[in-house]
Every structure is written in C-alpha cells, then in structure tokens.
Amino acid sequence: MDIRNKATRIRLFDFKTPQMRAFHLSWLAFHVCFFGWFGIAPMMAVVRDDLNLTKTQIGNTIIASVAITVVVRLFIGLLCDRLGPRRTYSWLLCLGSLPVMMIGLTDSFETFLLARLAIGAIGASFVITQYHTSVMFAPNVVGTANATTAGWGNLGGGTTQILMPLVLAGILMLGVSESLGWRLAMVVPGVVLFLTGLAYWFFTQDAPDGNFRELRERGELVRTEEEYSARNSFLSAVKDIRVWALFVIYAACFGIELTINNIAALYYFDNFSLSLETAGLIAGLFGLMNLFARALGGFFSDSFARRRGPDGRVRWLFIAMLCEGVALLLFSQMQVLTLAIGSMVIFSLFVQMAEGATFGVVPFINRKALGAVAGIVGAGGNAGAVAAGFLFRAELPAGSGDPGGGGHRHCLLYPAGALLARDAQ
Length: 425
What we know:
Layout: H1 18-38, H2 44-51, H3 55-83, H4 85-102, H5 109-119, H6 125-136, H7 139-154, H8 156-172, H9 178-185, H10 187-203, H11 212-217, H12 225-228, H13 233-238, H14 241-271, H15 276-288, H16 293-308, H17 310-333, H18 337-361, H19 370-389, E1 409-413, E2 419-423
Antiparallel strand pairs: 1-2
Helix pairs in contact: 1-4, 1-6, 1-7, 1-8, 1-10, 3-4, 3-5, 3-6, 3-19, 4-5, 4-6, 4-10, 6-7, 7-16, 8-9, 8-15, 14-15, 14-18, 14-19, 15-18, 16-17, 16-18, 17-18
C-alpha cells in the first residue's frame, strides 16, 4: 500500500498530529493489554489456594495464556490490512476486556484454564502496535518508532507485577475475603481495556490522511497487483529458513520474558518467603527494564549496521543472545535475595536488548513479505513461552526438595536446549 505523508520525526510531546496520536495510543494500548494478559500472574499464590491448583495445573494455565496468541498473531496482520489498525485494535481491546473481567467467575481449574486461554488473544496487540507505527512513520524513523512503542508497551509486564498486588491489597482493606478479592481485582484491568479501546476508536486513524475505508472510497489507497498477490507472500516467508531462525531466536528472548512475567512473583513468594506485594514489586523490575532496554537493542543494531553493514546486525544479535544465556545461568543459581534481584535485572537487560536486535534484522529478510515475516517471528515469542511453560508442569516426588512436600523445581529455558534448574530452598 502506498501511504503518503508519513512523519519523518518523532515529537514526543505532540498530541495533535495523527501520527503522534497513533504513536502514543499504540504503546499505551499494548501496555494496558499486559494488565489483562498477565494481571492474574502476581496474584497466583492466592488463586492457587482458592482453586486448589496443582503445579501441573498452574503450568497448564501458563501455557494456555500464551498458546492462543501464537495463532492470533499470525493472522492479525491480515485484519489490519482489511479493516485498518484503528478498527482492529479497538475491537481487540473491547472484546478482550470481557474474558478479563469474567475470569472472576471461574470456580475450577477447567474454567480458569479456558479464561486464560481466551485472554491470551490480547497478546496479538503487539502486531497491531508495530503495524500502526509502520504506516505512520517514514523509513528514517520507523525503526525507532517501532522499537520505542514495543518497549514502552512491554513495560506493562513490569507495572502489572507491581500494581495488581496493590489493587488486591486495596480491595482486601475493605474487608473483602481473598477468594473474592482477586476476582474483583481483575475487573479493574478489564474496565481499563474497554475504555482504552473506546479511546483508540475516537482518537486515532489508520493512516496520516485518514482511515483505510475513506482512502479507498476516495481512490487514494489502491492496491497494486503485487500487493494483491502479497496474500500469498505468507508462503514465501514460510519457506525461508532465515525466518524460522529468527522465530527460534525470538522464542528464546521474548518467550522467556513472557514466562518470567507469569512466574516471577510466585517464584519470589515461594523461595524467599516474601509478601505478595513485595514479590510483585521485585518481579516488576524485570518488565520495567523495557523503559529503555528494547530500544537500546535496536539502537545498537543500527550502530553495528552503520559500521559493518547488514552483517553487523546479525553479529550484535549473536552478542545479545550470548549475554542473555550467561545472565540466565547466573540468575538460575542465585540463592540470596539481593543477588537474585541483581542478576535478574542484568538478565532482563539482555533479554530485551535481544528482542530489539531481533526486530532490527526482521525488516531486511524479505521486504515484499514484511508483514508475514513479522507475524511469524512475533508468533515465535509466544511459541517460546509455550515451550518454556512445559518446564513448570512436572511434579516431582514428595520430599525431593520442596519443604512443603510438593517437591517442585524452578526451571528456565535457553534456546540451545539447556535446562537450568535448582531445587527450591
């Protein structure tokens, strides 16, 4: 599609132009989606006791929360092409708010699992965020725009860990029981999601000159024959081994981030005997690194490219992934709280820089099938989270390290296939 009048500069404090309104609302919408997507995660200690969930069942809910996103991410780009990012995002937010609020009605593992599965569709918001900024900004700044909106959106993974336990604590102060408290707490992100969807509908537009429907009616948005055949570009992307290499790499960085978002609060709660609020605060540090880390990964990717050409981007991606693996080894062995927090922050830095470095390479794989490549690679992140989720399902025999007799083990996954584990202290 030939989109005209794209912005050539990013003016952070400009809220009047359609380009900057799309910029700010797209990262804000992605940020808010994390509250619905992972809002339940920092409260899992309470949910576990209320619904009598086993470790295997908790692992299954982790898998469910990210599994459906793999499929939705693959095809959400097609909806953006047909309906426009404004309509697609608004509908995703408003419809996605329903299972977020209705998760409070669950009373068994099965219904809780189905609710988390339905909520997982919200994770496709990443693709729409990247799509909308791509059609709003010119090539000279689109990389920075994409990396910044993605990073600030992912920041929601950290703020969710911090704020949701506080929301629960506030509700409990009203004299509500824990069983009812976590259910009422999930209404909050559901309402915020719905209101954000309305804001996206009224304050954004698909392209700098208007919405796709209006542009097509005026004859200003005409597809070429090549673009019509681009629907088949998905097949060309599927056949490209480089796409699947990036799929695996993104699984090993963003997939790990999603997994940490799901289990970090429970990990600190169980292993260091912290309160739910303190565990959530510490777990939130992992996501808060998105404030700058992902954009930094994209910045270094551009810097390496200027010095060494396209190969420089690949070399930087290798360095970021290698450092992520080393940091993961360190984090997995920490048994002192302060050291665990410090190593987690370093681990988070390289995880998110690796994500930015990955999407620093994506635009240069297949320009004619960019949407398909981005969709497949983006889905890889959730596929990685699904794979990592299986590591948290296995029940160990009683007395194999868990002082409570459950004998569970905390595991972390790295792409080379190494399984890093330590017994819960």
